[in-house]
Specification:
heterodimer; A: mainly beta; OB fold (Dihydrolipoamide Acetyltransferase, E2P); 4-stranded antiparallel sheet; elongated; B: alpha/beta; 2-enoyl-CoA Hydratase, Chain A, domain 1; 3 domains; 8-stranded mixed sheet; 21 helices; 39% helix; 17% strand
Chain lengths: 103, 515
C-alpha cells in the first residue's frame, strides 16, 4: 500500500502524517455557486415538467423521478428561472445529480 | 430387530447425516475455495474435542415440495468443543445442504446452542455460510432470524460472541454477526450486504461487483463491520484462538492470566521513542510493543479508522485492552470512525473485566464539513460515554499532544481514569501553541511592525508556559510524570493496585449511549 506522508493542518499547525484516500476525496468539493435542483435519491427520470426559460416558484414540481418503485415529485426549493434542463425522461441519475440549472 | 441391527441402523443414519449435502456438493464447496463446515469446526477446535448436538434434527415444512426433502442436520452443525483447552459453543452453517439456507429447524438448532452458551457461560462462535432465508418456509424463517437476533442481544455482555463470515451472508442474515462482538472476514470468501449487486443495479442502476460492495476488504477497511481480516480461513482460525486467549469465558470471570510471561522484546528507549519535532509522526504501535509482554500486540480493526489503534496485550501476564492515537495516520485526530471504533472496543473490554490502557497523542478532532455533517458531535460523544461508563481499571499515558476536547475524551482523570501518567514530552493544553498564540495574541501580532517575528515569539512563549505536563500535574489532573522507559514498571504497579477496584454506580435500568 502506498503510504504518502502529507501535511494535515489543525489549529494552525501542519502535521506530517498519512491522509488516507477517502479523506482526500471527501474534501474535493462540487463547483461552488451552482444553483439548481438535484436528485434527492437515485432513480430514473420519468417526466420533465418544465421548459427552458420558464419562471417557476418554490414548490413547483419540475421532474418526476421513479425510485424505489415509487414516483417522486422533485420540487423547486427556490423561486427562479429555468436556465438549463440537464436530463430527459428515461435517464438514470445518481443521488445528488444536478437535474436542472436555475438562474 | 436385534440390538446389533438397531446399532447398525443408527450408524448408517448418522454416517449419512455427517456427509451433509453429499460428495458432489462438498467438492463444489472446495472448488469455490472454501473449506467444508465439518473441516472448519475441526480446524477451529482443539483436536478431537467436538461434541455434536442435534445431528438428527429435521424440518417440518410442508409446502413447495419440502415435505419430501430430507436436509442433513437442516443445514447447520451445532455443538461444543475446546479452544486452547477452554470450552466454547459453536454452530457452522453448511452451504452444501440447501445452500445453508435458514429455516425454522435450522434456526432452532442455533437458538438452542446459543441458550446453552449463555447457561454455561462459554463463548459462542458462529460460522456463517448461507444463501439466506429458506424461502419455502416463509415467515417461519423470519421467525428464525428474529429468535437469533433476540438471543444475540440477550447474550451481549454475558459471553463473548464471535462471527466468522465464510461465504455469503446477505439480507437479514447480516444482523446476527452485526450484533456480535467480533466479526472475522476472509479475502475472496466473505460477502456481506443488505442488498446485493443485482438488486442495486435493478433498483437504482448503480453497478458494482459483490467483492467491492461487501467483500472482506470493504468491511475490514471501509465500513468497519469486520474486526479481523485474514487471507485464508486457516489464518482466521488462528486469529480466533489468539483472540480467545485474552478473553474470559463470561462476564463474571476475570480474563485468563498467563503465569509465565516475558518482558518486551524492544523496551522503550528514551531517544528513539518520539521525534523531537511535534509536527513529525511516528508509529504508536512501536510504543505499545515497548510496553506489553513479549512485545505481543493483538490488534483489532487494524485496517479501519487507522488514526486510532485498538487491541489486546498483556502486562505481567494480565490481559489489557489498549486504545492509542496513531500520529502516523491523520496526525492521530479523533473523527467519526475513530470514535465509533474506540467506543465499541472500550465497551467490550468493560463488559468482560479487561482493564483499559490508553496512550494519548492527539491534536484534537478532525476539522471539516464532512465530519460535522457526519455527526461528529454524537459519534464523538460515544467515546466520552464509553470511557466514563467503564468501571474496569483505567490507565492513561499522555505521551505528547493532549489538546482540548480530545484531551478530555482520551480517558482523562476527569472521565474516571485510575492512574494518569505523563511523560516529560506531554503537552496537556487547550490547544497547540500555534493556534493558541494566534488567538490570544491576535492584536499584538497584527499591530507589530514585524508580525511574523512577533507571532513566532508568542508561539514560543505559549509553548514554554503551557505545552508541557506541569500545569496539568500542578492541578493533580496528572498523577505522575515519569520517563518513558519507566512506563511498563509504572503500569505494573498501577494494575496491581487496581485489582481491588470497586465502583459505586447509580441504580438505573441502563444508560442511553448516544448512537
Amino acid at each position: 500500500m502506498d503510504r504518502k506522508i502529507q501535511r494535515l493542518i489543525i489549529d494552525d499547525t501542519g502535521y506530517e502524517t498519512e491522509i488516507p484516500d477517502g479523506y482526500i476525496r471527501k474534501v474535493i468539493k462540487e463547483p461552488a455557486g451552482q444553483k439548481g435542483i438535484r436528485a434527492v435519491i437515485p432513480g430514473v427520470i420519468s417526466e420533465v415538467r418544465v421548459r427552458k426559460g420558464q419562471t417557476i416558484s418554490k414548490g413547483h414540481v419540475v421532474v418526476m423521478l421513479e425510485a424505489m418503485k415509487m414516483l417522486n415529485a422533485i420540487e423547486a426549493e427556490i423561486d427562479g428561472k429555468v436556465a438549463e434542463i440537464l436530463v430527459a425522461a428515461g435517464d438514470r441519475v445518481a443521488k445528488g445529480h444536478l437535474l436542472i440549472k436555475m438562474e | 430387530m436385534t440390538i446389533k441391527a438397531k446399532i447398525n441402523e443408527f450408524l448408517s443414519r448418522a454416517s449419512r447425516l455427517v456427509k451433509g449435502g453429499g460428495e458432489a456438493s462438498a467438492q463444489k464447496q472446495i472448488k469455490s475455495g472454501k473449506l467444508n463446515a465439518r473441516e472448519r469446526i475441526d480446524r477451529i477446535l482443539d483436536k478431537n474435542t467436538f461434541f455434536e448436538t442435534d445431528l438428527f434434527v429435521e424440518h417440518t415444512a410442508k409446502d413447495f415440495g419440502m415435505e419430501s426433502q430430507k436436509l442433513a442436520g437442516d443445514g447447520v452443525i451445532t455443538g461444543f468443543g475446546k479452544v486452547g483447552a477452554r470450552a466454547v459453543a459453536l454452530f457452522a452453517q453448511d452451504f452444501t445442504v440447501a445452500g445453508g439456507s435458514l429455516g425454522k429447524a435450522h434456526a432452532g438448532k442455533i437458538v438452542k446452542i446459543m441458550d446453552s452458551a449463555g447457561d454455561m457461560g462459554i463463548p459462542l462462535i458462529g460460522i456463517n455460510d448461507s444463501g439466506g432465508a429458506r424461502i419455502q418456509e416463509g415467515v417461519d424463517s423470519l421467525c428464525g432470524y428474529g429468535d437469533i437476533f433476540y438471543r444475540n442481544t440477550q447474550l451481549s455482555g454475558v459471553v463473548p460472541q464471535i462471527s466468522l463470515i465464510l461465504g455469503p451472508c446477505a439480507g437479514g442474515a447480516v444482523y446476527s454477526p452485526a450484533l456480535t462482538d467480533f466479526v472475522f472476514v476472509v479475502d475472496k470468501i466473505s460477502n456481506m450486504f443488505i442488498t446485493g449487486p443485482q438488486v442495486i443495479k435493478s433498483v437504482i442502476g448503480e453497478e458494482i461487483d459483490a467483492e467491492r460492495l461487501g467483500g472482506a476488504v470493504t468491511h475490514a477497511a471501509l465500513t468497519g463491520n469486520a474486526h479481523f481480516y485474514a487471507k485464508t480461513e486457516l489464518e482466521a482460525f488462528e486469529q480466533i484462538r489468539a483472540l480467545l486467549s485474552f478473553l474470559p469465558s463470561n462476564s463474571t470471570e476475570m480474563p485468563p492470566n498467563q503465569d509465565e510471561y516475558k518482558s518486551p522484546v524492544k523496551p522503550l528507549e528514551e531517544q528513539d521513542v518520539l521525534p523531537n519535532d511535534r509536527k513529525k509522526s511516528y508509529d504508536v504501535k512501536d510504543i505499545i510493543k515497548g510496553v506489553v509482554d513479549s512485545s505481543y500486540f493483538f490488534e483489532v480493526q487494524e485496517h479501519f479508522a487507522r488514526n486510532i489503534v485498538v487491541g489486546f496485550g498483556r502486562i505481567c501476564g494480565r490481559p489489557v485492552g489498549i486504545i492509542a492515537n496513531q500520529p502516523r495516520v491523520l496526525a492521530g485526530v479523533l473523527d467519526v470512525n475513530a470514535s465509533d471504533k474506540a467506543s465499541r472496543f472500550i465497551r467490550f473490554c468493560d463488559a468482560f473485566n479487561i482493564p483499559l490502557l490508553t496512550f494519548v497523542d492527539t491534536p484534537g478532532y478532525l476539522p471539516g464539513i464532512d465530519q460535522e455533517h457526519s455527526g461528529i458531535i454524537r459519534h464523538g460523544a460515544k467515546l466520552l460515554y464509553a470511557y466514563s461508563e467503564a468501571t474496569v481499571p483505567k490507565f492513561t499515558v499522555v505521551m505528547r499532544k493532549a489538546y482540548g476536547g480530545a484531551y478530555i475524551a482520551m480517558c482523562s482523570r476527569h472521565l474516571g481514569a485510575n492512574t494518569v501518567i505523563a511523560w516529560p514530552t506531554a503537552e496537556i493544553a487547550v490547544m497547540g501553541p500555534e493556534g493558541a498564540a494566534n488567538i490570544i495574541f491576535k492584536r499584538e501580532i497584527a499591530n507589530s511592525h514585524d508580525p511574523e517575528k512577533t507571532r513566532l515569539e508568542k508561539v514560543k512563549e505559549y509553548e514554554e508556559k503551557f505545552a508541557n505536563p506541569y500545569v496539568a500535574a500542578s492541578r493533580g489532573y496528572v498523577d505522575m510524570i515519569i520517563e518513558p522507559h519507566n512506563t511498563r514498571d509504572a503500569l505494573i504497579r498501577a494494575l496491581e493496585l487496581a485489582k481491588t477496584r470497586r465502583v459505586a454506580k447509580y441504580n438505573k435500568r441502563h444508560g442511553n449511549l448516544p448512537l
